[in-house]
Structure formats: structure tokens, C-alpha cells
Design a protein that fits this description.
2 copies of one chain form a homodimer.
Chain A: H1 6-9, E1 13-17, H2 29-36, E2 42-46, E3 52-53, E4 56-57, E5 71-74, H3 78-91, E6 95-98, H4 108-124, E7 127-129, E8 135-138, E9 143-146, E10 157-164, H5 167-179, E11 185-190, H6 199-208, E12 214-219, H7 228-237, E13 242-246, H8 251-260, H9 268-277, E14 281-282, H10 286-296, E15 307-311, H11 314-326, H12 336-342, E16 356-357, H13 366-378, E17 384-388, H14 394-409, E18 415-418, H15 423-435, E19 440-441, H16 444-468, H17 478-486, H18 493-502, E20 510-513, H19 516-526, E21 530-535, E22 548-552, H20 555-572, E23 580-585, E24 591-600, E25 604-611, H21 614-617, E26 622-626, H22 631-640, H23 658-674, E27 679-689, E28 696-698, E29 701-705
Amino acid sequence: MPLDLQRLFNPRSIALIGASTELGTISGQPMNFLVKRGYQGALYPVNPKYTELLGHKCYAAIDEVPEVPDVAIILVNARLAVKMLEACGRKGVPFVIMFSSGFSEIGAEGVTMQNELRAIAQRYGIGFVGPNCQGIIGVPAKAYAGFGSAFIYDYEPGPVSMVSQSGGFGFSVMSLAAMEGGVGFRYVVTTGNEVGISTLDFWRFLVDDPGTQMIASYTEGMKDAWQLREIGEAALDARKPILVWKVGNSEEGRRAVASHTANLSGATALYQAAFRQTGVQQIEDIQDIVDYSAAFQCGKVPRGNRVAIITISGGAGIMMTDEAIARGLAVQPLSPETVEKLRPLVPSFAALGNPIDLTAAIFDDTDLCRKALELIIEDPLVDSVAMANAGLQGEVATKVAREIVNVARRSDKPIMLGWSARREVAGVAYSMLDELKIPHYRSPMRCMRALAALTNHALACGRHEARKREPLLALSSAESKAELAASGTDLAEYQAKRLLARYGIPVTREELATSASEARRIASEIGFPVVLKIQSADVPHKTEAGGVRVGLKSAAEVEAAYEAILVSVRRYKPDAAIDGVLVQEMVQDGVEVILGINNDPLFGPALMFGLGGIFTEVMKDVSLRLAPIHASVAREMIREVKAYPLLTGARGRAPCDEDALVEALCRLSAMAIDLKDHLAELDINPLFVLPAGRGVKAGDALIKPRSR
Amino acid sequence: MPLDLQRLFNPRSIALIGASTELGTISGQPMNFLVKRGYQGALYPVNPKYTELLGHKCYAAIDEVPEVPDVAIILVNARLAVKMLEACGRKGVPFVIMFSSGFSEIGAEGVTMQNELRAIAQRYGIGFVGPNCQGIIGVPAKAYAGFGSAFIYDYEPGPVSMVSQSGGFGFSVMSLAAMEGGVGFRYVVTTGNEVGISTLDFWRFLVDDPGTQMIASYTEGMKDAWQLREIGEAALDARKPILVWKVGNSEEGRRAVASHTANLSGATALYQAAFRQTGVQQIEDIQDIVDYSAAFQCGKVPRGNRVAIITISGGAGIMMTDEAIARGLAVQPLSPETVEKLRPLVPSFAALGNPIDLTAAIFDDTDLCRKALELIIEDPLVDSVAMANAGLQGEVATKVAREIVNVARRSDKPIMLGWSARREVAGVAYSMLDELKIPHYRSPMRCMRALAALTNHALACGRHEARKREPLLALSSAESKAELAASGTDLAEYQAKRLLARYGIPVTREELATSASEARRIASEIGFPVVLKIQSADVPHKTEAGGVRVGLKSAAEVEAAYEAILVSVRRYKPDAAIDGVLVQEMVQDGVEVILGINNDPLFGPALMFGLGGIFTEVMKDVSLRLAPIHASVAREMIREVKAYPLLTGARGRAPCDEDALVEALCRLSAMAIDLKDHLAELDINPLFVLPAGRGVKAGDALIKPRSR
């Protein structure tokens, strides 16, 4: 696949295989739109039925086209499309866009044909878009190479590029955002079944594309999700926001994805974790693209999350405060100095906390607006300003806008407005704001959401910078890899814990006994009380098999328990291959947590953290991250579960050793990376977190090697 | 207060006290707007400075006005406003609207003046709106009695009425919804500090107002929240949807409310519970008012929650499916019969699950659209249809709209559209839909949200009807009321449980012992093991005081424990008045849950349910309802907590006696109502829920009487 996709969006020539004279149909539209929208490159319709199409010579076959076109669009039915792709390959066409449907989305037969497409594209190194897509628009080159109602408009070029898996929906979003929301687009591509170039391939290209300042994306699932982390971080380095609209999050939605673009959708929770980890902003509706793109184009970046909310009617302020808090911003009081200076400027009934209600008095004195705004924006406790002007219109609106522009011009802090007046009655005001790229929104809620997106992206960039200065633990154990590679079955507890120990994760003191007397000796060495547990790959549910005895306080109890366990297990599963009985120290004053690795087929190794038992299994109160993680991220994981207070001393317990838990998560992360080719799943359940200063200890563990 | 507010919104005459010739100011605007918008009643400006205003005779004082006006608007400053209200009272004015700010929202001095307002309004029986509001609009009577930018427009009357605590924000929402969203308003009122007529008073009136079909409301808090349940149910009876935009939900937001309209905002969780219980639909932005009002005016009511989602491009379908599921709708497969009939109509790559992707083939054959739509809407497994038409425009759009109208005309199931084409290119299609009141939205997401609101309201009406046929338990215990009335302190466990027992809530077998030998005798009667607990109003934290011993297996252990408890407690609190030691059966195989009554100052008695200990205290995993509740609601409460699986046999336990738990909650509800004048708080912690068929038992309880 050609790495540089510039040629795809700015082709010097396009062949249209299967172009039709019926200009309203899917196969007739692309040629028609390319001509109508003023595409300046060469056009080569290919169809044996015609000799000429819209004034262009029509060729019977692609190999008759007099040059190698930069892009070929294949418009024929699925079966024929396979042959045409092969022909494009032979011709040496670098990029092919295939609209044809009827591949993996229709089931087995389609899958076979789709595999043929993949093989052909790979064989010839074709940069392949589709099938089952609706084409691309390269706005600067007027490359309107697609079909649908979005193509009836000429778009103004701008800094937003968009990647949409869905064709119809993607282009309708683009069209609405451009025509009604004034968003300027650069490159837009619909990717369909993504046999060749994937959504993430396009992201990677757009992160590097100097003309793209913001990326919006609609996705149903990413077959190559393991790339997400790296591309997301590259985007943070470039400070380019990626807005993603991820659908297929419900069970029913996932079913629908399978029959649409046939993408593996993967676990919703892993997407959420990955987006969060890489500062990808999730959006929920078309309006968000419009609103956020205005925010990201304002040219200012908040240094922190403290927003000052200014209103002329308190209602909007309260609502914006709720929304700010819900989205992670801080709404703190202004500094006392600022309040003192504001007091004489405003009516006695104005509220000078935060939100700051300047009241309707602003109608009578717009000067007040500037002075107050100046004081507020200069407050060192303020990182950004959100102002709600209700329906302010006419002359007053113009005066207020002028003052806002004056203040904004002299500050590097973002200021955004909620302003519900219609353009007809506040046009002058709005134009003044537009000129200085001061974002304004019809609803104060939308204003706050956009400011939150801008702020959260800035914070994500900051965290990413900080993480780059943080050491990242890497560990390697050739012995462990070999052991997993050799193992045909799940590792029993004592084996799994030996692996953990190699990566520096503390485990309980323990030793495998193969006789009652040996068990007695080990117990005496460890010290009482002890726990005895059967060790057998054939007995994964040890307790159920009667294979566990806890709280054994003497040598005699240990010997008796040893024999009892063997009797129980032999009754439970007569043919079980028994490795022995593990004699283990009994940990009594730890909080039980669960750590896990899930080596996801799409995302690669993901780490899980939760409190023990019910919290994870019933309450689903867990945090997830893609490995590897820095210590700061491990701490985030620990603190974001709802049950976190149980680790800090809730209900009269001693606070736990959180630092040791952070360390254990980092070691687990390093282990996940080191073993990613050999490990399917790892669970430490429980890990005992002891009181502060006393560390952690893995109480039990299970490892499933990756099957090959 | 006059009960019938029709006269307020349709006044025959209005006096404007403090009206000004400066028409742009707050005191100048109302007179100006009333004249400009064509109000037909008599206008009486009152201001000693003028003899005439905008062609109307101006009076020096209200008592000089030649008749008693239906409404007086007070436009003067706070201090003078108090006197003017008194003057209105003397004149006998039935309704007064006060714009003046500077009352309770500014602190102590303002509170005093506001109390004066209240007293005057009550003394004269004035229907009082405000202070600190922006007036009202009665659209049919052209009573534009307020100020702000919303008043520059003439509105078309319609069936939506709105109550907003915030003036500026409320009117800007109204104006935007009317002018850009086409919402037809009837009565709009801003209520400010609500000294007289409250938001809920207006709701009550509007529920009965024949001209109002939908109520929208912006609220920061309700001082009379105890009315919410009754009014909400009256609205369900009338099948009138109430949309509420509740703000002040974050801690910071609540602080802001205090300085805005100075409303007690109350606990967010209780509002959520009350809205949920009464089918009040919560909204989150201006767009929701526009979108939902179109849905509620479609004239059709879904019979259930099963939606068929139809698209011409799969992407929208997946997103709508996610949104439908998130909002409680069901997206189930069509019946096999329907699928069989659809199959020959559509391309082989169309998806006929649900969402149903008819694919872009619809471009070429609009007839297909009608046939498919007919089959789908007639499917008995479908209650409503949501269809996404992407950006379909021009001729095709018109043809598709015609077919939709044809199908919709013959069905009583709602059909709604997501259709993103601009009106310029789909105007004919949109007009055809508008004529039949078929709602259509620019984004499929908004379409699905609106359909969910319509569906959830219909379901709430249905549940309400069903509940009316369900018996509601009522219990009464004069003895308990007397006991609480007489009690000066919290009730100790044994006293609290005696109360529970009177209301039929099972408690542990137990008896109070005042000597070791008595404890021994009681224990023998109950049977071992037993628990001993100190009983003293001075020792609320029994365990901390060393006042609890569990698992006592013999008479000797009981005697020893009795003495040990007394020693510990005397050391812990030497002057504690000790009632004795409670000897109690030890319950061993129950799941611990917590039931509670919180007699909220705003809402009245609310019921709480959660799993024991950590689940309630750390995880906040609780459900709330206002008392009284029916058994079906008790079951909802139990099933909506996340930890519910612990009651049904998670992790290998026996399923619990859910029916007995439902019964206990109903009895608690009856108790809450019976004792509502005497009880501040009641906690049963724990209530043991025994295995199915074996009932529940209160293990411990605390009752705080209401202080007087």
C-alpha cells in the first residue's frame, strides 16, 4: 500500500470503471459530479457500451486507457468488480476505490470474494478503498469521487478531514456540517468494508497531513485496533484533535455492525479505554462536529481546567456549571482580589461567585461588560471563560460583542459564548466574533460542551507530555516465554505465581507438597496459619472440588487437611492429574483486588483492575487500559473505580499500600508486553493489598497460554 | 391565591407600575411590547412623573386607576416594590407580576423584604408572580407582559406551555424554539424567586388547561416538591407530557442556585426519583424541547417499546440502535413472515434484521420504500418505526415522502424520520410530512431520542394505569405515633424494632435483659447461637463502644459476654444511661440489605433500598422512591440496583426471598406515610433476606423522631 495518500485525495487522473450514462444512478453519478464540480484532472470513463461520456472518450477496458490513472473507481457489481481490480493491478493503478456491495456483509459467499479482493490488492500493492463505500472528496483538488446527495454542493476547503466507515451517513453528516454549520472540510473518505486502507491508516496519514488540523471519524469497529494507541499518541504529539463517533456499543448495535460493513466491532469497553488513554474525544451527534470544530479553530489553548462562567441571567450559568462539572472542568470561586474589584461595577444583586451573574443590568451599560470581562479573564485562577448572553440582540448585542472582541484580542485564554439570538437580529455582533474566531453557540449547553472538549484535549496533550518524561518499566523473561510456549494447558496456581515472581510481582510464601509429611514440614517453615490448595490443571475450580482448606493452625491440622483434600479431589474427578498440594501462608489483613491481562485479538494486551469478587464480577466496577502503562496511569486506574475508598481506609480499615499496588500494575504491564505473543489471559485473583508500607501479595493466579 | 390562572394569561386590563418612557430599559419595555404586539385589553401605566405614555393616560398611583386591573406589573426597585404590592392589595388586584431584583438572592436583608412580600400577598390573596422574574407571555391574548429580546417577535399560538424559573434563559429558549424550531407556544411564565405562585402551581394549572397539550419547564429547585408526585400523576391521567430541564445538579451548581433565585434545590437524587416515578421526561438542551414537541404532536401513541429501524445506509441504523437501547427501547428482529415477504423486494446485500438496511437501492425504486414500509409497520412485533433517509433530496425525496405519507395515513403506529437534507433541496418532501404531522429530524440521533421520549411517556401512562388497579397498602398505629411524639431522643434498637413489628416488618427474635441471669434465660429460650447488644440512646455506635458480642454458643458465654459488655460501655461512656442488653437470635444465612425512610423537608417521606454495607455506603448503589409505593414499584426498586444479582443467587448462593422483601418495602412505605408527621429518619441496617420462602428479618434499626 502506498504510504502517502496525498495522491488519492489530489489525483491527476481518475478512471471510472463501469461509468454509466444514466447520471442519476450510482454508476452514473461520480463522472457527472466530477465534471460538474470542476475537477481539473484527466477523466477516463471505462465501459465497453459507450465511446464517449459527458464529452470524454470512453474506453472499453482499463488497459486501453492511455496512461496509468492515479485513481480508479470501480462501479460494477461484486462479481465483476473482482476481475476489474485484477485489471487495475495489472495496469499498475496505485489507488482503487470500490463502491460495489455484496461482499462480507452478505455472508460466506461474499467473504470468499472479499478475500480475493484482499489478495489482489496485496499482490499488486494497490491502495484500496472499500468495497461497499461511497467514495471520497478531496476538496482542494475538487476530487468529488463518489455518489449521493452530498455531491450536489461545492464545498469551501478548510482544515477538517473526516473518515467515515458508513458512506451515506458519513456524507450526510459532512454535508450538513459544512452547509449549515460552516465547517470547512479538506479530505473526506468513506471506507466501507476496509479490505485495504483502514480507518486507522487514514488517521495516521491525516495526523501527518499539514493541511489537516482536526480529524473527525465515524467508526463501527477497527480491525486493526492495536494501532489506535500509537496513532492516538502521534496525534497528541501533533496537538491535532481526533473526534470519534463510535457506534455499535449495544449488543443489538454490534449485531447490526456485522450485517453492515461486517467489521469486528470488539469490546466497547476497550474502545472507551483506548480513546480515554489517547485523548481521542468521543462525540455523539452531528452538532458536536460543528461545535467542536469551531472550538478547536479558536487559536487558543486553555492552560488548565478552571472555567469562569459569566451570564446576564443566572439560569444559564447554573446549567453550564452542571455541564462543566460533568465533563471534568473546575468551576471555582474567583480570587478575592478580582471579586473586590468587580463589586463596585455591578448591581448589588449580581452574583460574584462562579458562575458570575452580571444580571440584566448589562442592557443599560455595555462598558460594564468589558471591565468585568477584563478583570475575570485576567484572574490567575481562571483558564478559560464561557459567557452566556441569552438572546441579546440589536444595538446592545453589537456593543457587547465589540467589548468581548476587545478583551479577547488581548488575552491568550479562550473565551466562548452561548448566544441564542437569531442571526437576523445579531448579525453584526456575530460577524465581529467570527472575524476573531471567537466561538459562539446558540445554546449555552453546547458552548460548555465545546469548551470542555477543547480543555480536555489540551489536558490530554499535557498528560501525554508528562508521561513522556516518566520512565516506562520494561521487563523480559526468556524462561517465562519458553514455559508458556511449551505449555499445552492452563498453568496451575503455583506455576502461574512462579511466573509472576519472575516479573517481580510479590506472591504468597508457598511451596508444593507431594506428601502429608512434606506439607507439614513446609507449613512449619512458613509459620501458621496456612492454607492448603490442590494443584492440578484438571481442577480449575479448586474450592468446588473440595481442594482448599484454610486457617490451618497446627502441623496435625495440616496433615489431616492434606489427606482430606486428596480424598475430595479424587472423588470429584477420579482421573485428575494431580501435581501436588500447595502449602501457602494465610494472608489475613489485606484488601482483595483483582488484576488481569486480556490479550485482545483486536487491541493486543489490555490491563484490568478492580476490587475483589463481587465488585468486579457483579458490579462490573473495573478500570481498563491498553498496555504498556506508566505509573501515573496505573494510579489513575486504581483511583477511578468506585470502590476505591475501600483502599484508602473506608469503614475503619487501615489505608492500603497504594504505591505497591501501582508498582504491581506496572510490572503486570511490562509482563503483558513481554509475553504478548504467548499469553491469552492472566488473572491475579486475589491480590492482597496490605496496609501502607507492607506491600502486596498475589494470593492466587491463573494463566491461559495463547493457543497456536 | 386565585386557583384559576386563566385570567393571568388572558387579562382584560394591565397596570404597569413604574412604567418608563425610556422604552429600551427594563421598566420601559413591557408597555412598549404590549402596545407593539397588539394587546387588545386596557393598559394603565402608573408613574407620577408622566401624564401620558405611548398614547395611554398615565396615573400617579395604582389607586387612581379607574378600574381594578386583572394584572399589575411592578417595575420599581425592591424597596419601593414592597409598598407597591401593598397598594395593589388594597386595590384588590388579583394578579401581580414583580420584576424587581434584590430580594432573597442577595442575602439576609433581601430575605426580610421577601418575607414582607409573602405576607402581603397572603394577606390580600394576591396571585403573585416573582419577584426577580421577567414576566409572562399569554400568546392567544397577545399579553406580552415582560421584557427581553424574546418580545420582539409575534408568536403563533400553539399547544405548548412553558414555566421557567429563570427569566432571561427561559425566554431565550422559548424564542429560539418558536422561531427556529417552529414550536407553537400558548402560555409562558418566568417565575423567579417564587414567593407566591410556584412552578408546581403552574404545572397543576396547565395540566387542567384544555389548551395546553405539553408542558416544558426549566427549574432550579422546587420549594414545594411534595406536590410533584400528585401533579405528575394528574398529568399522566391527562396523558399530558411534562418535559423538565432540571439544573443545579452538581455541588457547584447548587451553590449557584442559592445566589440566583435563592431556591432550596434539594437532593438531586430525589428529583430524579420523583421524575422517574411520575413519568416526567427530563431534557438536556433547547433542541429537546423542539424535537420532543414535534413527537408529542404527531397524534399517535406507541403501544409498546419495540421499534423497527429502517435505513438507506446502515451507519445511521447502528447509531440509532445504540441510542434506542440506551433509552430503554427494544430493537428486536422482525417476525419471520415479514422477513420472508421483504426478501424478494430488496437487493441481496440488504440487511433484514433490525435495523433494516434497504440500502441505496431505494434511489432507483421508491416503490420499494412503500412496500417495505407497509410490511414492516404492519408487523405485529413492531410498535413504532424510525427511518433514516440520510441526505435524500430532490425528486427522489419527494417520491419517498409521498410513499411514507401513504403508509403513515393507514397506520396508527408512530413513524418518525431522520432526514438530513436541507429544506432548500427537500422542501416538497418536508411539507408533505409536516402536513400529516410526521416528525422529521436533521439527525437520526435526535429522531431516536424523540421517539424514545414519546414511547417512554406512553409506557409511563400505561404503568400508571396499571398501578391504579393495584392495591396500595395503608397501615396505622396510633401507639407508634404517640411513642415518637413523646420521645426526645433517637429510639434504641429494641424500641425501633418494636415499631417495625407493629407495622408487620419481621424482626429478629430478641428480648431486653437487665441482668446476666436474665440474659442467660432469654438466650436459652431463643436458642443458640445468640448475639448480645448494648441498648442505650447515649451509645449510637454500639460496636465501637465494645457493646456487641456475636456468636455466643452457650449460657456461660452469654453470662460472661453480658458482664464484659457492661464493663466496656462504662469505660467508653461512663455516664451513659443504659436500658439493658438485647439478647438476639443470630441470623446466619441471609443477604444483608438496607431499607430506609428519609422524611425530606421538600419531598416528604422517601424510601431507600440498597445492599448492605459497602454497596450502599461506598458504591452508592441505591434506589429511591417517594412514598407511598405499590408492590410493583417496590420490585422495581429492588431490581434496579446493580448488586441485584446478589439476591438472585450470584456466586453460588441460594436465591433470596424477594417476595418477602417486596412486602417489607411496602410495609415500610405504609409506615412512612402513617408516621410522616413524627419521623425524621429510619434505617433498617441490616435487614436479612433469607433464602426463598423463609422471609426477611430486621437485624438492627435506628429511628430518629422529627424534632419539633
